[in-house]
Design a protein that fits this description.
With 469 residues, this protein is mainly beta. Helices cover 8% and strands 40% of the residues. The chain folds into 4 domains: 25-120, Carboxypeptidase-like, regulatory domain (Immunoglobulin-like), CATH 2.60.40; 133-243, TonB-dependent receptor, plug domain (Ferric Hydroxamate Uptake Protein, Chain A, domain 1, Beta Complex); 251-328 and 407-468, no CATH class; 333-389, no CATH class.
C-alpha cells in the first residue's frame, strides 16, 4: 500500500515542528587559546571549516581564551585561529565523529598574520567531557573490512561487550537489527538510529526500517555505557548510523559483487543422500549485488550555487538479486503409520527411537494389539494432518531422518538513499534524507518500507520530522 503525503501537510508540519528540540549525530569543537607565556588570548577569531563542503562556523574567544563551536556535522575539519599581532594557527584533518566533544587548544606565536603555523591532527583526538563507552567505525574502516553480504549492522560486533551473531553472517537483504546482546542485556533492549532518527520497528521486535546500504554509511557508532541523557530510550546501548553527504567536488563509484555455486563444495547431507540429483553437486546458488553512488554540489548554471557552497546531494542505489536452493531433511510418518500401523516401533532397534515404543489406547490405558490402531478409531482430522506430510524418500535414511527435499528461494531488493544538505546561512543548515527500500521475496509475499527525514539546524537548536510507512 502506498501512502502519499501532500506538500501542504509537509510544509505545515515543518513550520509547526521548528520549535522542537531533538538530538542529532553532530560533534562539538572547543578549546583554549593562549600565547607563548600561557596567558589567555581573548578576541581571537576561530574558524571551523568542513573540508568536504567548505561550511564555516566562526567563534570568538572570551576573556579566558575559551571558544566553543557546537552542532557540527560528522566529517573532517580545519580549525584556524587568528588575531592581529600573532601568527595564524591552522589545524587540519580533524576528524569529528558523532557526539564527539573534541578539544583543540592553541598556543599563538607572536608574528604576522601572513605567517602560518600548521598542525595536522592525529588520529587520537582528545575528548573534553567524560568519555562515554563507545566505538566508532569510520568510513575507511568500513571500506577495508570484509562484510559478508555487506550489511553494516554487523559492524557492532567490533565493540567489546556486544555478543551474538557473526560478522560473517550472510544477510544482505535482511532487515534484522542484529539480535545482539549488549553488556548481557536482552536483544530488544538496544535501539538502532539512522541520522538521529529511530530505525527500530517497535511493532516487530528484532527488525529495522529497512536494510542499510554500506556505501552510504559515513560511520557507525556503538554506545554501550555512560552515554549522555539525550541518548535515552534504551537500557542496553545504541547503534547509530551516520549517512554520507555530498561535498564541493563530485565523487562517485560503481560496484558489482557476484557469487555462484561453481566453486562451492557439496554438503555431506547431499553427498550421502543416495540421490544422484543431489550428490552430483552443491545447492544451486547465484547472487548479484550491484549499484552506484554519486555525491557533489547542486549547481544551476548562472543561477544558483555556482560557487559550490550552498547545496549538496548524495544519491545511492544498490540492487540485490539472489536465487538459491535449500536442502532440508526431516522425519515423516511412514506409509504404514498413516494407516495406524505402528508395529515397526516394537522392534528394539527401530530407526525412530532405538527402543520399543507402544501405542496406548486412551480409552482403556492398554496397548493396542500389535501396536496397530483400528481404522474406526482413527480421526479424520488426524488422517488429513498426516497426509499433509510428504512420504519418506525412497532409499534415504540419515539417523532418524527419512525424508530429504529441496526448496528454491529468491529475493529481489533495491536500496535507494537520497540526501540533500542546504547551507542557509553560516549558522543555519537544512538536511533532507529519504530512503526507499522495496523488496520482493518468494511469492506471494511482497514488502516495502519507506522513510523520509527532515533535519534543520541553527544556533543551539535542531529539529526534525521523520515519516515512515
Amino acid at each position: 500500500m502506498y501512502v502519499r503525503v501532500p506538500l501542504a501537510i509537509v510544509v505545515i508540519s515543518c513550520c509547526c515542528a521548528s520549535v522542537g528540540e531533538a538530538q542529532f549525530d553532530t560533534g562539538h569543537v572547543a578549546g583554549f587559546v593562549r600565547d607563548s607565556f600561557n596567558a589567555a588570548v581573548p578576541g581571537a577569531t576561530v574558524t571551523v571549516e568542513n573540508e568536504g563542503n567548505r561550511d564555516r562556523r566562526v567563534a570568538i574567544t572570551d576573556a579566558t581564551g575559551f571558544y566553543a563551536v557546537p552542532d557540527l556535522p560528522v566529517g573532517s575539519y580545519t580549525v584556524s585561529i587568528e588575531l592581529q599581532g600573532f601568527k595564524r594557527f591552522v589545524k587540519t584533518a580533524l576528524k569529528l565523529s558523532a557526539a564527539a566533544q573534541v578539544s583543540v587548544d592553541a598556543q599563538l606565536e607572536v608574528g604576522s598574520m601572513e605567517e602560518t603555523v600548521e598542525v595536522r591532527a592525529s588520529t587520537a583526538t582528545v575528548q573534553t567531557a567524560t568519555a562515554q563507552v563507545a566505538r566508532t567505525v569510520d568510513s575507511r574502516q568500513i571500506q577495508d573490512l570484509t562484510l559478508n553480504g555487506r550489511n553494516p549492522i554487523f559492524l557492532a560486533l567490533l565493540k567489546p561487550g556486544v555478543r551474538g551473531g557473526l560478522m560473517s553472517s550472510f544477510s544482505p537483504d535482511s532487515v534484522t537489527n542484529g539480535s545482539f546482546s549488549i553488556n548481557g542485556a536482552r536483544d530488544d533492549e538496544y535501539v538502532v538510529m539512522v541520522d538521529g532518527a529511530i530505525a527500530t520497528r517497535t511493532r516487530s521486535s528484532g527488525s529495522m526500517l529497512g536494510a542499510q546500504d554500506v556505501e552510504t554509511v559515513e560511520e557507525v557508532q556503538i554506545l554501550t555505557a555512560n552515554y549522555r541523557a539525550e541518548y535515552g530510550r534504551s537500557s542496553a546501548g545504541q547503534i547509530r548510523f551516520v549517512t554520507k553527504s555530498g561535498t564541493r567536488d563530485f565523487h562517485g563509484d560503481a560496484l558489482e559483487n557476484y557469487r555462484n555455486a561453481s566453486l562451492d563444495a557439496n554438503s555431506w547431507t547431499r553427498n550421502s543422500s543416495g540421490d544422484l540429483r543431489l550428490s552430483n553437486g552443491p545447492d544451486p546458488f547465484t547472487f548479484h549485488q550491484f549499484g552506484f553512488h554519486l555525491g557533489g554540489p547542486v549547481i544551476i548554471p548562472h543561477k544558483f550555487n555556482t560557487d559550490r557552497s550552498k547545496m549538496f546531494f548524495f544519491w545511492g542505489e544498490e540492487w540485490i538479486r539472489r536465487r538459491d536452493t535449500l536442502t532440508n531433511v526431516g522425519t515423516v510418518p511412514t506409509a504404514a503409520m498413516r494407516n495406524g500401523d505402528f508395529s515397526e516401533l516394537l522392534n528394539p532397534s527401530n530407526r525412530f527411537f532405538g527402543r520399543v515404543r507402544t501405542i496406548v489406547d486412551p480409552a482403556t490405558g492398554q496397548p493396542f494389539p500389535g501396536n496397530v490402531i483400528p481404522q474406526n478409531r482413527i480421526s479424520a482430522n488426524g488422517q488429513a494432518l498426516l497426509n499433509a506430510y510428504p512420504l519418506p524418500t525412497a532409499g534415504f535414511q540419515q539417523g532418524t531422518a527419512n525424508w530429504i527435499g529441496t526448496q528454491s528461494s529468491w529475493s529481489y531488493l533495491r536500496k535507494d538513499t537520497v540526501k540533500l544538505d542546504y547551507l542557509i546561512t553560516p549558522n543555519q543548515r537544512l538536511t533532507v534524507r529519504g530512503t526507499h527500500i522495496p523488496w520482493h521475496f518468494n511469492e506471494p509475499f511482497v514488502g516495502q518500507f519507506d522513510r523520509a527525514q527532515w533535519w534543520w539546524s541553527r544556533p543551539n537548536r535542531t529539529g526534525a520530522i521523520s515519516l515512515s510507512r
